[in-house]
Amino acid sequence: MLKRIESFPLPLIGFAAFSGTGKTTLLEKLVPILVSKGIRVGIIKASHHSVDPDTPGKDSYRLRKAGSSQLVLSTPERSICYTEYSKPADPLLTDQLKLLDTRQLDLVIVEGFRDQAFAKIELHRQAFERPLLHPKDNNIIAIAWDLTEPQETPIPQLDINQPEQIADYILDCLKESAQ
Description:
Blueprint: E1 12-16, H1 23-36, E2 41-45, H2 59-65, E3 70-74, E4 79-83, H3 93-97, E5 107-111, E6 120-124, E7 140-145, E8 157-159, H4 163-178
Parallel strand pairs: 1-5, 1-6, 2-5, 6-7, 7-8
Antiparallel strand pairs: 3-4
Helix pairs in contact: 1-4
């Protein structure tokens, strides 16, 4: 069951894992499968790095640097919303969700925001020798890992190397949430 975040109208599912586990690589395979099933997917990705996709010298860059706290760059292919924060701080997922146009989406996938309360699938690779997250996070609803033998867990187990299986699990959760 995909628990909804208060005041957010869509189901969302997160992927929780330590850095290097392959979250983005999995999502690159998973998103096209969901889209092929008719699901309109939005993604929120957290980054701990400072990123500026704007180009110095371009109009949008100049206007942001002039002091605009928000700027929407609109092109025929896409729109980009820049929001400048007066003080750097860890963003809240609820604030990032407000940036999405939910009229164009059926599901939001969240990569990151591991410590915030919403439904997540844990990704785990045995070779990394990292601790499991789900014993300490009751928002983790399944685990996708690369174990050859199933382990005893209180949550469903998925194969991290089978994105179709993970997509089917998410689709089942969506159906359950719609009821």
